[in-house]
């Protein structure tokens, strides 16, 4: 209230001519929300590097139209995104979003609401498996730490669901979307190791269980969207083992031909996203389109 009064006082003290410029600027800012963005608006969360960055690249390069909102923790040091911004200045926005700070998720949703009015595709591409001196995938129960379990759960499961919660009112069918979708799509990057039915090796307690939680939360949201007849579908995607910072320390035992490039994996995943229909809501797909058991 005090801030509001101070703002009003400052506004009244501004010369009349400047006040009218400010009013026009704010009107054009807000009226842009009525504009339908040709080609649709896609958001890639966790876009600073790895699979997320590759999603942004392919969404921009493979479609002639459409806007991409790429989010990351530190936009100023996201060099991959900044070089894409040089090339696609009109079609790419970079927004700050840290999954562990809900206020940044809310602020990002407000920005998208004000600038675009709606969102047609949301890809949660972030994730953590190991962080030097902080988080190590456990090889035995005796190495399990409360702090690791909670951190993996916070970033891999809680964060993406809060993103869906805040973007939900914006998730609508795109008027001019090139993919001619009749539903908005939420795609969460999960991992096959999050499957309980497929768990034969054990280990990686924090990562496995956080991805299993992400799967359950996403499935639960998908049921609610269907019950409310919201034209939104949620899918979970396993990208395969992909050559990124996340997998690098664990690539030694990957069989020959089973380590994918980001380009290959994202091309496959976009194929699944672009073909997704209402009957796919709540399903968990591998990169090759095969369903993965829970
Ligand atoms: N690579 C694989 O083999 C593989 C296999 C199965 C599943 N996946 C899944 O695929 C997804 C992408 O993995 P990747 O290989 O691309 O990993 P990556 O190269 O390590 O990239 C991880 C991304 O997550 C972001 N991130 C981490 N903590 C965050 C936070 N608190 N808030 C917002 N963003 C955060 C990172 O941002 P910063 O740059 O700020 O750290 C980075 O952009 C993950 O969900 C992963 O579990 C990967």
Automatic annotation (TrEMBL):
Entries under Pfam families matching the protein: adh_short (PF00106)
Alphabetical list of CDD domains matching this protein: carb_red_sniffer_like_SDR_c (cd05325)
Recorded superkingdom: Eukaryota
Family annotation (SUPFAM superfamilies): NAD(P)-binding Rossmann-fold domains
A GO cellular component entry from the record: cytoplasm
Single GO MF descriptor: oxidoreductase activity
Protein's name according to its UniProt entry: C-factor
């Amino acid at each position: 209230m005090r801030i509001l009064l101070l703002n009003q006082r400052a506004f009244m003290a501004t010369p009349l001519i400047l006040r009218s410029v400010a009013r026009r600027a704010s009107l054009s800012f807000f009226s842009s929300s009525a504009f339908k963005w040709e080609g649709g608006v896609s958001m890639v969360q966790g876009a600073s590097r790895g699979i997320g960055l590759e999603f942004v690249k392919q969404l921009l390069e493979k479609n002639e139209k459409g806007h991409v909102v790429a989010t990351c923790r530190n936009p100023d040091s996201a060099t991959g995104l900044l070089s894409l911004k040089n090339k696609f200045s009109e079609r790419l926005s970079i927004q700050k979003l840290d999954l562990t700070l809900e206020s940044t998720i809310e602020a990002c949703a407000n920005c998208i609401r004000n600038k675009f009015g709606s969102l047609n595709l949301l890809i949660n591409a972030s994730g953590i498996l190991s962080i030097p001196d902080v988080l190590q995938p456990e090889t035995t129960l005796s190495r399990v730490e409360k702090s690791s379990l909670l951190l993996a759960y916070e970033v891999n499961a809680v964060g993406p669901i809060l993103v869906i919660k805040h973007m939900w009112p914006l998730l609508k069918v795109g008027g001019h979307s090139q993919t001619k979708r009749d539903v908005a799509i939420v795609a969460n990057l999960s991992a096959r190791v999050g499957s309980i039915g497929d768990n034969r090796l054990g280990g990686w307690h924090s990562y496995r269980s956080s991805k299993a939680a992400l799967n359950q939360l996403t499935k639960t949201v998908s049921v609610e969207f269907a019950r409310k007849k919201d034209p939104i579908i949620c899918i979970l995607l396993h990208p395969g083992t992909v050559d990124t910072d996340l997998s690098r320390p664990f690539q030694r035992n990957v069989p020959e031909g089973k380590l994918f490039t980001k380009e290959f994996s994202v091309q496959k995943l976009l194929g699944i996203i672009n073909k997704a229909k209402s009957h796919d809501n709540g399903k968990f797909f591998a990169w090759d389109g095969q369903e993965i058991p829970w």
